[in-house]
Amino acid sequence: MRKLILITLLTLSFPFHASSEAVSVKCDNIILVPGQPALAGYLTIKDGIAVEVTSAPANDAKVVDATKGFITPGLIDSVTRYGLSEVGAEDSTVEGSFKKDTIAAAFDVSLGLYRDSVRFPMLRKRGVTTVISHPSGGLVAGQSAAYFTSTPAMPVKTKMAMVASIKKSAGAGSTGWAMHRLTELVNDSKILSSRKSAYDKGETRQLSSSKSNLEAINTSISSSHPWFVKVDSYSSIVALVELSKKLGIKLVVVGGKEAWKAAGLLAKEQIPVVLNPADNLPDSFSAIRMNPNAAGVLQKAGVPLIISTTGNEPYLGQLTQAVALAIRSGLEKTAALQAVTTTPAKVFGLPGGTIKLGKPATLVVWSADPFTFAAAPLAVFIDGNKQPLQTRHDALMQRYRNL
Q1: Model's pTM, two decimal places?
Q2: Which residues fall within 8 angstroms of residue 398, CB to CB, at 6 or more apart?
Q3: Cross-strand bridge partners of residue 77
Q4: 8: domain range?
Q5: How far, rounded to the nearest angstrom, does the alpha carbon of residue 403 sit from its chain's CA centroid?
Q6: What's the maximum distance between 2 C-alpha atoms anywhere in the chain?
Q7: Among 316, 326, 262, which Cα is nearest to 292's?
């Protein structure tokens, strides 16, 4: 409790009042590019721009002492449902699924996202500045979108990836049948693309899904958009890698509880794996060979590793804790930070991931090592704009604490 009170006081007293003010933050751990050595000195931020790192504060700038803290790029959570589900048990607040069909490739989640969701301020308060919101349900759930966690949320990239699942829970009944259906959909999308006029005239055979779904699939593949595919078992992952090469799908393995067993293959093909180290218990027979050290195994093998809360309700907003668990299980700290900054930014073509001097800042000033329990953001900038850190929960606490 004392730590929580201290962090709250530090946050409230941190002298950033407007993005136009010049502030020089003294810090011994300024990480501009995760993977490169940290700098010690003063990072000056003015007009929302990360200006420079110097050994002395800038003239006429307010000086903030965060010597023992850290400055990092804003964190990225790559598989979430933020803005698509306010209250999971209340169907009227859920916008992330289309329940009438197991194939919903044309479904664009950005059209129904709650941009003023109460969850976005909660994410900022945990150092998360960018999220990718995913549809869910069925074999092909639809297309995801990336957002800054400002209020209201700012779109970064819409229709950026296709989301699918070959797990039995997706409704296919069999992993083999799910892969057959994916093959059929991709092949039919190519037929539609090459014979659109004939299709419109009714001169082709009946295709495996609607025109809009097949067009969305073809566009996704031809544009080299990532395909986030939920899969856990080793044998399914191996089969899916081969299928993705055959179909021309840019595969991203999501979940991947047995992906560590295929680390060599995934590294050879440079297929990213999105893991949630906090989701570390087998929940089905397809995950019985899961390894709590999977993140470290994959990273050491050379697999592009991404850490995420993977959209699971119990882990909402707990990205730093997930990273901390991976570190505890053997993942190097530098690789852990890269897994929530530079790697997802590079893999998904997102802004951020690094702090670029002379550019609008998307960064977090932390009170301590961000992957420790005592750490909290003292200031958050998103695309050059300083963000408020008070949440609805804070406001309610202040309102009712003295009843």
Answers
A1: 0.92
A2: none
A3: 131
A4: 2-73+356-400
A5: 39
A6: 74
A7: 326
